[in-house]
Write a structure and sequence with these properties.
Layout: H1 5-16, H2 20-42, H3 45-62, H4 72-109, H5 116-129, H6 133-144, H7 149-156, H8 160-181
Helix pairs in contact: 1-2, 2-3, 2-4, 3-4, 5-8, 6-8, 7-8
Length: 182
């Protein structure tokens, strides 16, 4: 459904003047979009719903600071995207900790096993951790989530050229790190 900025602006103004039903109308107009945007980023329907809900709390708390009520949609979607990326980073950190534990356990069990494949995976994981957070995000979206350069550009709100540059520099850094380890 195409959104009418003037209707959103009128609802925001009405809410700021004390009309609580205006917020209910905004939620009705935008909640599904927020859930869809969050899901597009995190790929988890339950987490996407939680993110949309948390985003509404932030929106309600900060709505009085919105300078241009006509930009409500873009402003609110930016909040949803930020919350989604925060959740994604948290998932990545948790996954890294879990993988470190798995590698640690595997190393303890196979101390004299010279499994080159496992060593390569461990080295690659360590090398990826050495990248900047921006490079890690691009690498994750491109290689593990199979996002296109264009999708990454939209998701991270950066140009396709910046995505290509980050991916190139991440690959170069990974090559150098892995080369130094051998």
């Amino acid at each position: 459904m195409k959104r009418d900025q003037h209707t959103d602006a009128a609802l925001v103004k009405a809410y700021l003047l004390g009309d609580k039903s205006a917020m209910a109308k905004l939620v009705k107009r935008w909640h599904l979009t927020f859930c869809q945007k969050a899901f597009w980023i995190v790929k988890d329907p339950e987490l996407a719903k939680d993110i949309a809900q948390e985003s509404w709390q932030v929106i309600i708390d900060k709505l009085d600071k919105l300078k241009d009520v006509n930009s409500f949609g873009a402003w609110a979607l930016r909040i949803v995207c930020s919350k989604s990326f925060d959740a994604l980073r948290q998932q990545v950190r948790k996954r890294h900790k879990d993988q470190e534990l798995e590698y640690s356990i595997a190393e303890d069990e196979n101390t004299d096993s010279g499994n080159d494949d496992e060593q390569l995976k461990a080295s690659l994981l360590q090398a990826v951790k050495a990248l900047s957070e921006q490079q890690q995000m691009v690498v994750k979206l491109f290689y593990t989530e199979s996002y296109s350069l264009k999708d990454i550009s939209k998701t991270l709100d950066i140009s396709v050229g910046t995505v290509k540059s980050r991916l190139f520099h991440a690959r170069e850094k990974l090559k150098q790190i892995l080369k130094d380890k051998t």
